[in-house]
Amino acid sequence: MTVLRDIEHDLSRFRMRVFVASIVVLICFILLATRLVYLQVVRHTDLNEQAENNRTSIVPLVPNRGLITDRNGIVLATNYSAYTLEVTPSRLSASLEQTIDDLAQVVTIEPRDRRRFKKLLEESKSFESLPVRTRLTDEEVARFAAQSWRFPGVDIKARLFRNYPYGELASHVIGYIGRVNQAEKAVIEEWSDEDQANYRGTDYIGKLGVEQSYEKQLHGVTGVEQVETSAGGRAVRKLASNAATPGNTVRMSIDIKLQKLIEDLYGNRRGALVALDPKSGEVLAFVSKPTFDPNLFVEGIDSENWQALNESIDKPLLNRALRGTYPPGSTYKPFMALAALETGKRTPQQAISDPGFFNFGGHRFRDDKEGGHGSVDMYRSIVQSCDTYYYMLANDMGVDLIHEQMRHLGFGDPTGIDIQGEARGLLPSTTWKRNAYRKPEQQKWYAGETISLGIGQGYNNFTMLQIAQALATVANNGVKMKPHLVKDVVDIVTHAPTTTAHETLGQLAAKPENIAVIRNALVGVNIEGTSASAFKGAAYTSGGKTGTAQVITIAQGAKYNASQLDERHRDHALYMAYAPADDPKIVLAMVVENAGFGAQNSAPIARRAFDYWLANVYPSEEDMAAVSVGKATTPIGKPRPVAEVAWPPSSTASASVALSPVAMASGPASAPAVKAASPPARATSAASAASR
């Protein structure tokens, strides 16, 4: 039986299928057209930028770091260019250890280089380029270049390195730079977008001193370079460039020759000294001994040197001028006397009879002079440094009144100097003791604890910076200035200096006649008192006060004998002074640790510093050698004019040359890396001797 097909039905089904297929094709074309319009019109700008980014790369141009100079333009921190062998771990074809072993066959890689690289690797990301060797010689660069095909992910780069041409000289105040660590990266991420952008590509940052506190002024402005890259990510050609702007020049207020003189006079002894201009607050010298070489830290200090510095009993990394706190000893007495005048507890003429001790609560507080000083008024109490006078005064005043009066002079508070890390010191009071201790019996203030405060002992602990500021306030007739280490910042583009403002912190609420009494007694100390020998024959009149601070307590009835004590248990030698007496231009406070009497070990250093600053003379080599071991008070030998003293010092000059194959002066002028500037002429000021 034959079945007939329904041709019309089949055609209808076929036409329906063709129609559906046409609709589907049309929809696909519409979708494609829509996508094309979306990509070519709507997202044109975005996609074009992505394509351009695939073809090009934006590379940050890190600026040259600014120079740091002393007040006379002598360069203390500069830059030089050298080649570095750098490894990018994420691009290596072999293991990291194998790559470094193979590299060691081409260039010298010491164990310390490996340790430093490992430390950097722990602090960095795998795609970052890290130096495995720095300061390559031309021969090493050539050897690697010939075999570079063997080492994908390893490159030779030219980088700028920080150099401190005078090594250990003034290292605590200049500071140093080092690679940015994770903690510092976290801090940078909290900065504004503009500041963050300025630190892209920056591997180094200030870690200490002026390098740290003036980081943003020294850093400069990061530039950018647009380069065309190959499919492999290598640069093919430069398309555009916006040059980096070098950092500004920071000119410090210190005189590096004065700093060098003082550090040499300390010799191998430990201690601190701060010298100020009392009228402006400018710091003229900021000494902490012993010092360290900041060049060790620039590329990451190796473990041997770090261990030697960190574990040294002399603590060379401690900035004693900024963070070291000491009992002020007898240097505290003039300030106590001023407080007595202001509170009416004493008059200048009021005298006591000193038998050589002061009995209180069954305890005998001894004077340094056996048998006592006899009848002692305020002038003699300072000139002869009578302890008994101040035992009695402290007992009459009480701890809280002492605290109130000394706070006005700045004791127990940071001075606000323009570098970080300043210690507060400790100015005791009953409130302080209640808050400092947990046990009730420890929180109570005992009357006997007040007695030793009068002679700068007990809980008293201050920095040399605080003592220098307090004396500067007295020398400046009660005007208190904020100390600062930077004189001005010179703009690298305009060469215009921005001078640090001389900031007045206030006027001491003390009567001028009372200040005059204290200043007269301080002059007497250097004319007929404990430091008269050190200032014998000086071409100017000065005021000062010696001090000796106990390190350990001497038992009742026992006598202090330095020769029978461990060297580090001996008394500290302190001294503070200003000159010229009638118009002070320099004030200093200093301590030589465990050296004994301030008159013998500290005052002679101050005398030579004043001679340099006021009379423009340098001590003889014989005199410097004797002072550095505490064997000379009055200058010996023939002093030299400052201009005749060789600069730069030969020991540091040779080290600087060895470290600086290519000097990169990023300052306002193309000056040499080390400027041998002669000191400015200083008028010799000889003030008339003040009468008693």
Give the topology:
Layout (H helix, E strand, L loop, with lengths): L6 H36 L1 H12 E6 L6 E2 L5 E13 L8 H8 L7 H13 L6 E7 L1 H10 L6 E10 L7 H4 L2 E3 L2 H8 L3 H6 L5 E3 L2 H5 L1 H5 L3 E7 L5 E8 L6 E4 L3 H11 L4 E6 L6 E7 L13 H8 L22 H11 L8 E3 L2 E4 L2 E4 L7 E3 L1 H6 L3 H11 L1 H10 L21 H7 L3 H4 L3 H5 L12 H12 L3 E3 L4 E5 L6 E3 L4 E4 L4 H17 L14 E7 L22 E8 L6 E7 L5 H4 L1 H13 L1 E2 L2 H7 L12 E2 L8 H10 L3 E2 L28
Parallel strand pairs: 2-10
Antiparallel strand pairs: 1-8, 2-3, 3-4, 3-5, 3-26, 6-7, 8-9, 10-18, 11-12, 11-23, 13-16, 14-15, 17-20, 18-19, 21-22, 22-23, 24-25
GO biological process, one term: proteolysis
Protein name: Peptidoglycan D,D-transpeptidase MrdA
Pathway: Cell wall biogenesis; peptidoglycan biosynthesis
Number of strands: 26
Roughly what is the average pLDDT, rounded to an integer?
86
Number of helices: 25
Oligomeric state of the chains present here = single chain
Strand content: 15-25%
What ranges have pLDDT less than 50 throughout 5 or more consecutive residues?
A: 653-692
Tell the overall outline. Answer: elongated
- Report the biggest beta sheet as strand number plus sense, adding barrel if it closes: 8 strands, mixed
Radius of gyration: 35 Å
- Category from helices, strands and their pairing: alpha+beta
Distance from N terminus to C terminus (CA atoms, Å) equals: 153 Å
Task: Give the helix level as a range of percent.
Answer: 25-40%
